[in-house]
Amino acid sequence: MGLESCCARERTLKERPFRGHGASSPGRAGRMHATPDPVNLADVLSELFARRGYGRVQGDRQLKEAWTAVAGELISAKTRVQGLRNGVLQVGVSSSGLLSQLVSFQRVELLEKLQTEHPELKIRDLKFRLQGRMR
For the domain that residue 63 is a member of, what is the CATH number? Predict the structure, then answer.
């Protein structure tokens, strides 16, 4: 590149006004960028918690507490709440004998108790699965 072309380039750059990258600077086509409306902090935090799964931790704790209250200490010690899917409370059971007892004799009673004592959980059914050892 020769000296003349270098000086011409410098002059051209000096003559152009600086256009920063702020929200009010014109875009490539000469249009102004619209600034988004401010977002409520509560909405942002709510979405963040939902995406990160923080709400599930509290929901799981609430399910476990409800199950323990309804099933009692003996049964809840040998079972573990696995989650709530489509209104069905999934419960892991430590032994086949207890599984048979829960499915055959106690399922309806436990479901009715959960629905009356904890209607906010919206449990419509119970499903028991053999899990082996409980932690």
Answer: 3.30.300.180
Per the domain annotation, does 20 fall within a domain? no
Residue 25 lies in a domain: no
DSSP states along the chain: --HHHHHHHHHHHHHSPP---STTSB-TTSPBPPPPPP--HHHHHHHHHHHHTHHHHHHHHHHHHHHHHHHHHHHHHTEEEEEEETTEEEEEES-HHHHHHIIIIIHHHHHHHHHHH-GGG---EEEEEE-SS--
Range of the domain at 90: 43-130
pTM over the 0.70 mark: no
Q: How many domains does the chain have?
A: 1
pLDDT, one tens digit per residue, over 15-69 is: 555 555 554 545 555 566 667 788 788 777 777 766 665 555 567 889 999 999 9
